[in-house]
């Protein structure tokens, strides 16, 4: 049977955290999905380790494991998109978790091919036992309570590909930009935003648990030149994408992405100079 939903997980040198991620997927209340695992930039013993985990979790019939010597999460996600057989796409990072009804709740929100389904999200584990104020979680609550208004007002839901269910036709031929390793998620979401006419928020019980990662700062070891290149490149890409279909993209969202890119990169570039 052709799966309805394709779950794509890129991974590099997976640890026990990935096993926890797979375990949360194996416990799903929803069954009509395939799991595409893309092992990027490494091979053994990790390929065999993943195979054992999949067998232990009784997911052999659902899982596809692909290995590529080329590293990079964007390349891995692109491979997953090319292989996906489902009509809907869900991305999960390899150290994150999902609640039992996550996929089922995403499926229940499916509308037409212009509807993006979003779930609740929490940082995991909570800091000192309390939940940190996390902008996408707040934005989810607003859409859940008040309904979808505009892409600009829901912009914090368009920063990353996880906690979402995308119609495959919404993505089309769009792929993650492999030339960059910072800001590529938001760029991907902006690129397909011209196809988003509605955002549906699932039940709050469906949660994507985004794991706190060693301080969560991917900018720390990047040089000023590296950051400057990314800032200029992203501004160029946002501009060319917007100008390719100015009547289909939100101008306010476009300006926001430009300003956010300048602010975040220039701030980190200045920190390097001090």
Summary keywords:
274 residues; alpha/beta; 7-stranded mixed beta sheet; 3-stranded mixed beta sheet
If you had to describe this structure to a student in words, what would you say it looks like?
It is a single chain. Helix 1 (16-26) links the parallel strand 1 (5-11) and strand 2 (33-40). The chain contains 9 helices and 10 strands. The mean pLDDT is 93. Strands 3-2-1-4-8-6-9 form a 7-stranded mixed beta sheet, sandwiched between helices. The chain has a 3-stranded mixed beta sheet with strand order 5-10-7. The longest helix is centred in the last third of the chain and has 23 residues, at 251-273. The termini are far apart. The relative contact order is 0.14. It has helices spanning 16-26, 46-56, 73-83, 102-108, 135-146, 168-171, 184-192, 224-244, 251-273; strands at residues 5-11, 33-40, 63-68, 88-91, 97-98, 115-118, 120-124, 164-167, 198-201, 207-211. The protein is an alpha/beta fold and 274 residues long. Helix content is 40%, strand content 18%. Helix 7 (184-192) runs parallel beside helix 8 (224-244) and helix 8 (224-244) runs antiparallel to helix 9.
SSE diagram, text form:
Elements: E1 5-11, H1 16-26, E2 33-40, H2 46-56, E3 63-68, H3 73-83, E4 88-91, E5 97-98, H4 102-108, E6 115-118, E7 120-124, H5 135-146, E8 164-167, H6 168-171, H7 184-192, E9 198-201, E10 207-211, H8 224-244, H9 251-273
Parallel strand pairs: 1-2, 1-4, 2-3, 6-9, 7-10
Antiparallel strand pairs: 4-8, 5-10, 6-8
Helix pairs in contact: 7-8, 8-9
């Amino acid at each position: 049977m052709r799966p309805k939903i394709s779950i794509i997980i890129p991974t590099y040198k997976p640890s026990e955290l990935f096993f926890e991620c797979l375990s949360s997927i194996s416990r799903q209340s929803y069954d009509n999905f395939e799991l595409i695992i893309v092992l990027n930039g490494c091979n053994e013993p990790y390929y065999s380790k993943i195979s054992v985990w999949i067998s232990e979790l009784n997911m052999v019939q659902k899982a596809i494991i692909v290995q590529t010597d080329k590293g990079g999460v964007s390349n891995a996600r692109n491979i997953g998109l090319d292989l996906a057989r489902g009509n809907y796409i869900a991305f999960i990072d390899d150290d994150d978790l999902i609640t039992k009804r996550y996929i089922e709740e995403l499926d229940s929100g499916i509308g037409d091919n212009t509807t993006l389904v979003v779930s609740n999200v929490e940082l995991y584990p909570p800091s000192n036992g309390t939940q940190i104020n996390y902008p996408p979680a707040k934005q989810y609550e607003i859409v859940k309570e008040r309904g979808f208004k505009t892409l600009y007002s829901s912009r914090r839901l368009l920063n990353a590909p996880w906690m979402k269910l995308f119609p495959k036709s919404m993505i089309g031929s769009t792929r993650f930009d492999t030339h960059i390793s910072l800001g590529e998620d938001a760029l991907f979401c902006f690129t397909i935003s011209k196809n988003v006419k509605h955002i549906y928020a699932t039940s709050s019980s469906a949660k994507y648990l985004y794991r706190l990662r060693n301080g969560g700062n991917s900018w720390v070891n990047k040089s000023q030149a590296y950051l400057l290149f990314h800032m200029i490149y992203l501004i160029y890409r946002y501009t060319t994408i917007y100008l390719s279909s100015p009547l289909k993209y939100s101008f306010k969202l476009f300006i926001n992405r430009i300003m956010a890119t300048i602010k975040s990169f220039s701030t980190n570039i200045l920190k390097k100079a001090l």
